[in-house]
Amino acid sequence: MLAFVIRRVFQSVLVLLVVGLVAFSMFRFVGDPIDNMLGQERTQADIDRLRADLGLDQPFVVQYFKFLEGAVQGNFGVSYRQGRPVATIIAERAPATLELAAVSGFLAISIGIGLGVFTAIRRDGIASNIIMTVSLIGVSLPTFLIGILLIYIFSVELDLLPSFGRGDTVMIGGWSTGFLTESGLKALILPSITLGLYQMTLIMRLVRSEMLEVLRQDYIRFARARGLRERSVNFRHALKNTLVPVITVTGLQLGSIIAFAIITETVFQWPGVGLLFINAIQFVDIPVMAAYLMLISVMFVAINLIVDLLYFAIDPRLRADRAGAH
Amino acid sequence: MAELSSETTRPQPAEPSAWARFRASDFYWKFRRSPVAMVSFAVTVLLVMSALLAPLIAPYDPFDPGSLNLMNGFSAPMQPNAFTGETFWLGTDDQGRDVFSTILYGMRISLFVGFAAVMFAMTLGVLLGLVAGYVGGWTETIIMRVADVQLTFPSILVAMLIFGVAKGFTPIEYRDQMAIWVLIIAIGLSDWVQFARVVRGATLVEKNKEYVQAAKLIGRRGPAIMLRHILPNVMSPVLVIATISLALAIIAEATLSFLGVGAPPTQPSLGTLIRIGQGFLFSGEWWILLFPAATLLALALSVNLLGDWLRDALNPRLK
After folding, report:
1. N or C: which terminus of chain A has fewer CB atoms within 10 Å of its end residue's CB?
2. Which residues of chain A have pLDDT under 50?
3. Predicted ipTM?
């Protein structure tokens, strides 16, 4: 057990160090940021001052250690494009992405499980077949086309919902929330559906197949034989036993929601971290790119580590396997 | 024994041609029995051919400024333009470029990037998979660990990150020229893992078979055994994965270009065209967006369905 945990943690740290090296070498070897930050009318004194301010005049090793030291403390320097600390910019943008991801995740889980149960119980019904076919189309449409389609229907044709931005936000102790205003809530609807649709279909299909599996089991037949209500059999007995794989998959999809938020945020011009990253790539804003790279890697590595360790904690069979292998 | 000798004296039937053998194969029979496969194959061939023959088919060259007339801008499909009276099948965009022609040329770029990226991913993945499976030991551990780690990140995110890093490393003056190649490398690097895992698995099985032992006994070296003996025997799942990867690569390219971190405006792919078209959604010029989007969908969907069918037809175990 301990050896496994240590090995996994060691691996995770190694991955982060490699990502850190990539992020740092971008700083070190990518063209001259001074050119990007200063306009045409610059003097040599300006250049020297900025170079010293950014620490670009120091040797490689010193810069690398300064970078690592800063990264651990969440300090990634100053954005070349906005001239403000990257940490501040990301802190400003994070609530938008996190709120979007939370609503999408909630939609995906609640609607996904609901439809999954429905299509499993009425497996031959017309409604179920329609839902399954539509879900197949939903999976094969690229995310950005779904977003555009929703904008076309609900913003252009019906003029019901806003097509871009977050609406009005309220600041609560440094956290800007869109949950408290009408326009903020309206603005959340289309992006969160776009972002959550793929996960929704994934969860729906998973719940459906697990439910079909469970509904065949003897204890369900026995529950029916005892004269329990259909609702109680389906939800209290069957659904409960399908949830373990659903929770695992949902956990792993958490990272994907944050990653795919990049696409959704671009379609809806949602002022989150993903849009920030895309703009950083377009303008080669290295500090922002490096910070995002590190942030997303830490997140993915942490999620995978936690899921691996949870597996290990939940399923005793894996322990014997792991001890034998490798 | 008598039977055997009579067999040799009997006149041999002519060796059937490759086409005749293909027509008699299970594969062809399954193909003819599946309407989905035939339709998606036909659509794929039609789209690929029209992309290849774009300079011959396209009524206009959208990248020749001399043939453009700004007065033709925003012509609706199949309706004569208010100023010039010219009619365009699928309309024109804001600069008066024929949408049909830009789609043909855009599809060329989408398909080129898709094919090249899959070829790159396939070469890399197959080689690393062969080496991991055949050599084993530390080499295998390192390759497969890297693959495992990469698999935990969504591949579109990996492609985006690689594109960003590579763009950063490219000198500013070459960025637009190199964008297509950077895109190919980014998508290719994000997609090699599938190939490597499958090839490694197959190699582990193949390397213990007698023909490999025999090749070792007659003194063939490792690389020759891997490439000449094992590789042909592990190729059929590789081709299936390549087809499915092609659909994914085309969508990945379109997504990146749509986000503005892919093909440059000077070489617009389908994704770039959709990005341009999205800007005209509110002003009512729906055709600038709709036709490239529909083309992308038809292309991705038909390649995807073909890949799915191929998987079931060639190797049901992969399902």
Report:
1. C
2. 321-326
3. 0.77
